[in-house]
Amino acid sequence: MKTQTLFYQLFESQSSTYTYLLGDVASKKAVLIDPVIETVDRDLNLLHELGLELDLILETHIHADHITGAGELRSRTGAKVGVAEVAGADSVDLPLVDGQVVKVGHLEIKVLATPGHTNACLSFLCEDRVFTGDVLLIRGTGRTDFQQGSPESLYESVHEKLFSLPDETFVYPGHDYRGLPYTTIGLEKAYNLRLGGGRSSADFIKTMSELKLAQPKRIQEAVPANLKLGLTPGGRVFHPQVVNNIPEIQPEDVNLHLGRNFQLVDVRRPEEFNNELGHVPGAKLVTLGPELMKFLESADRNSEIVFICRSGGRSGQATAMSLDFGYKHTMNMIGGMLRWNELGLPVARD
Length: 350
Hints:
Blueprint: E1 5-12, E2 17-24, E3 29-33, H1 40-50, E4 53-58, H2 70-77, E5 80-84, E6 94-96, E7 101-104, E8 107-113, E9 122-126, E10 129-133, E11 136-137, E12 140-141, H3 151-162, E13 170-173, E14 183-184, H4 185-191, H5 201-209, H6 219-226, E15 241-243, E16 246-249, H7 251-256, E17 263-266, H8 270-273, E18 284-285, H9 290-298, E19 304-308, H10 313-324, E20 329-333, H11 336-342
Parallel strand pairs: 3-4, 4-5, 5-6, 10-13, 16-20, 17-18, 17-19, 19-20
Antiparallel strand pairs: 1-2, 2-3, 7-8, 8-9, 9-10, 11-12, 13-14, 15-16
Helix pairs in contact: 3-5
């Protein structure tokens, strides 16, 4: 690609999803393709380190195996979100159609409608790279048995829209499960196990009809959420990282979302609540022990709760207890009030 373009390929290991960052050095504007909710903080940190402003988020399709970070990234950066018009997703800024060209700084990204894996799949061509989502993978293709997928459409999409590109065009897929980062159009035309080497449409349709694959594990959760740009049906604010089976959230994220629909529960002793460390504005004091047990027995199991203590130890215990009680959306604030104060975040004392 041109020297004024920054390019990063990023990886999310649980779903083997690739996210792509394109940045225009001159305008300091950037594009993210297929972000994942669990790696939003990573992506924002990288943008900050590169001195880039996120301007556009593009989705290759409505994903069934992970939840997109598009909605969360838009709320935190003001970037616009582009999704295929035929997907019917909510609150999309740019409903995308075949042949459309979107510009970010000097970058020009051409939209290619490539249905087949789903009816709303897009590929994005930018200079000498094409981002193919789940339509064309490395030596393979996406499945075609849900979300109005069609083997006939996928075969046609690849041969008419992708295999017509120059052989030297780099192909960056939405996933890879074998550790390969990219391929080229020429290599896939020659060696793709399902579509290459002159295989016919009939051969491909037969191959796909015989796969008999299990449904993606997260399809019931992911598709409805992704039709709302990653905002889950329950309206969750946080998508925490899980460390040693305990969901955890950074103090910076808690502060960023103060005032939104979640509970802050401080599990320290009463004399600690208003000491020199203070407490997070809006936090409720529910001391670890019998008081917390009573709270957990009576509260809504679907509540989104952040537990807080001095350094993260007791709040980690509280989070584990809540999970044992059947809570689904609780998490531990990493580093507790010590870290909160180190960061200079707002402190309350009643």
